[in-house]
Amino acid sequence: MAEFYDLNSERPPLAPQKPFLGDDKSLIRATFILGAILLAWKFYVALISHVIWEEGHFVVSGAYLDLGYPDIPAGFPWLARLVTAIFGWHVLPLRIVSLIIATMMPFAVYFMATPLVSHRNALWAAMIALLLPPLSLNGTVFYPEGALQVLMALMLGCLIRAIQQDQVKWWVLTGVCAAVGLLVHFRFLAPGLAVVVFMLANAQGRKLWTKPGVWITAGVALLGLLPSLIYNALNDWPAIQFHVLNRPQFKPDPGRLLSYFETQFAMGTPVFFTAMVVAAKNGLIRDRDKPESLLAWQFVVILVFYGVQTIFNKKIMPHWPFMAFIPLLPFVPDLLENFMSRAVTQGRRYMRMAVIATAPLMALAVGIAGTAYQWAFVHSAELPYALREHNILKNENWSLLEPDIAAADARAKERFGPDVAWAANSHMSAVHMEFPGSGDSHRRFYTLDDPNDELTRFVVARHKWGLDMSALLQKQAGKGVMLAMLEPSYIYHEADKVAMYTKLCQNFEDIEPFRIVALPPYKMAVDFYTARVRTHPLTDISGAPCAFFPPAYIAHPERGEFLSRDDTGNYHGAAADPMGVTAVDVLLDGKVVTRARYGLDPEAFRVPDMLKYDPNWPKLQYDFKFPAGSLTSGEHKLSIRATRTDGTTFDSDARTLYVH
After folding, report:
1. C-alpha to C-alpha distance for 45 and 96, rounded to whole angstroms
2. Distance (Å, rounded) from C-alpha 579 to C-alpha 616?
3. Residues 6+ apart with CB under 8 A from 375
4. How far apart are CA 169 and CA 86, in angstroms?
5. Which residues of 64-84 are buried (b: 16+ CB within 10 A; e: fewer)?
6. Which of 343, 329, 250 is nearest to 283 (CA)?
7. How far is CA 531 from CA 282, 416, 481, 483, 504, in A?
8. What gap in Å lies between CA 554 and CA 251, rounded to an integer?
9. Which one-letter DSSP state was computed for residue 209?
């Protein structure tokens, strides 16, 4: 196996071998066949996948034409606006556009490779682009990743030609690709950073500083960043606040670096990733005086850039470094052919072919697993409960809420008259219900200053659109509102959530809980309310219960949590009532299984002031353990029942709990 890593060694004399997949025409035919199969496969995935919140975000943002948006440049919202203007407020046309963009990837890789390698190896590089999961799986949703990768390959292809030929057209086209990339996402700054590092660290790169073409490229590229710069300068730099100040969680952990490279190694497949590492070594050392050295620097800088962030930033997403897999694709075919051709016997040759074959097989496995996962998520409600444990993405089907939205709206109009506004807790929740919704491009939800909107700075956009909390309070004073609120997991335990809901209680009256709807696989729920906006907000809400704060609260276990039959965990929550609570019972499927210890006031957490209406405040918490034998395999409903001092009771909302 050690020989596998020696991909640069000279080849021993071998008998002539027939080219794999025949001549170039046969290879082209095979590439197109594979591309067609992938296109059909990804179209199927696009058809069955739930709408992700980013798709709604791009569409709704694009409806408000601007130079930029708090978290992203304007490119994809502008594209979404164009597509929806032509094809309507539907997700499928957007995904078809995204699929078309992703389908350009092998052509872009071929364009990048042709100045550097033989025609056949360029064709093979295009084929490998179809087999490499980080590149081949794009296009099933309307998301920028595929566009970023295509633009990077085109930019590098133009830049290599510019370095080789020093013609103005290639410098300009390099800048155009970079400008469009910067208009799509800020992550396109990473390839630009790699170019700068190449121009500082490499002797050949340092010569570029004196070439006028480089400055032409930089000037054109800056045009793509200019709209975002203007938008941010006029709006107190929300992108800087989000991406640089708010989003990072600086918790140094070197262990995450290992996990980061393990993920990239697996997603790139061991064979292709190893070949790229060898190609990077060649570019940095052996070929450092050739243009291909630039591509090695791209691979290294992008991987290291995100790798260093991983140590300190808990929020690095696995797909952010995927652009690093593009630059060295032209050199992978020759390295793998060299590895295979060095076999001294036919048997060893077959063994090496088998090793190389693990790459497309792993890619196939990733594709099948991803498709199965999407199918399983779509059918969460029908699947055996045990399989729901693997639904780890927050990608529920929000369109299932349409009947509930209509019913809650009808109830609000029944209570307060026809002039009813709609509100959601956050921008993420709002765009889920605004797009595609019922296909109505005019449907809008106000948002309620959710802490996450403060973090992401979506409050900036919602304020500009007249859809934030202040606009709602001003426009709907004395009028009705239907509220759809993503249920917080720990409403009493998180200070920012307490502050948000306290503000809601101060600004709304006649609050009526309408219903709670859990979406499959039942790990999240949306709480519907109807209420009226106060004309004069309250200052103190502790004198009486506010319906936004549940009187019977389960902090843990969470919705949709999986427990074992012999679980011994300690679970907790709180219960409050103006009459006072004397006992809390724990119910499983409507039957009492144990009585909780009630009246706790641990120093680690104190219940907030708005529960002072209970005479026993602050001793309002409880904890419990499930008795031995009370948990049986299956899907269950967990709730608590609180007993008042007069003997009457009230229950919490029942939540799904799984036992395996």
Report:
1. 11
2. 9
3. 48
4. 33
5. eebbbbbbbbbbbbbbbbebb
6. 329
7. 67, 8, 5, 8, 10
8. 29
9. G
Question: Side chain identity at 559, as an amino acid letter?
Answer: R
The Cα–Cα gap between 10 and 221 comes to 42
Rounded Cα–Cα distance for residues 510 and 632 (Å): 41
| 639 bridge partner residues | 587
Q: H or E element: which one contains 68?
A: none
Instruction: Answer for the pair 566, 584: CB distance below 8 angstroms, yes or no.
Output: no
Report the Cα 69 to chain-centroid distance in Å: 17
Distance (Å, whole) CA 299 – CA 513: 54
DSSP letter assigned to residue 73: B
- Residue found by looking up tokens 């052996």 in the block: 286
Question: Which residue intervals of the chain bear CATH 2.60.40.10?
Answer: 553-659
Positions of the chain with pLDDT under 70: 1-22, 314-315
* Closest to 430 (Cα-Cα) out of 75, 60, 149: 60
CB count, 10 Å around CB of 344?
10
| Sequence-ordered list of residues with C-beta below 8 angstroms from that of 36, at least 6 positions apart, any chain | none
Identity of the residue numbered 383: L
Q: What share of the chain is helix, strand, coil (3-state, %, to 5)?
A: 55, 15, 30
Which structure tokens are listed for 490?
Answer: 């720990």
One-letter amino acid of 511? I
Contact predicate 643/622, CB 8 Å: no
The strand pairing partners of 68, in sequence order, are 73
Answer yes or no: are the C-beta atoms of 438 and 402 closer than 8 Å.
Answer: yes
CA distance 296 to 281: 7
**What is the C-alpha separation between 538 and 548, in angstroms, rounded?**
15
Alpha-carbon torsion angle 107, 113, 117, 119, nearest 10: 20
The Cβ-side half-sphere exposure at 97, using a 13 Å CA radius, reads 19
**CB count, 10 Å around CB of 265?**
14
φ, ψ of residue 525 in degrees (nearest 5): -145, 155
User: Residue 566 has what pLDDT?
Assistant: 93
Length of the chain: 660
The pLDDT value recorded for residue 3 is 45
- Of 257, 206, 223, 61, whose CA–CA distance to 144 is shortest? 61
Sequence-distant (≥ 6) Cβ neighbours of residue 628 within 8 angstroms: 566
CATH class of 553-659: mainly beta
Taking alpha carbons only, the member of 172, 151, 146 closest to residue 161 is 172
What does pTM read for this prediction? 0.92
Cβ atoms of 481 and 423 closer than 8 Å:
yes
CB 228 within 8 A of CB 56: no
Separation of alpha carbons 545 and 612, rounded Å:
9
Closest CA to 325 of 268, 258, 257: 268
CA gap 630, 587 in Å, rounded: 10
Question: Would you state the torsion angle of the CA atoms of residues 113, 118, 123, 125, taken in this order, to the nearest 10 degrees?
Answer: -50
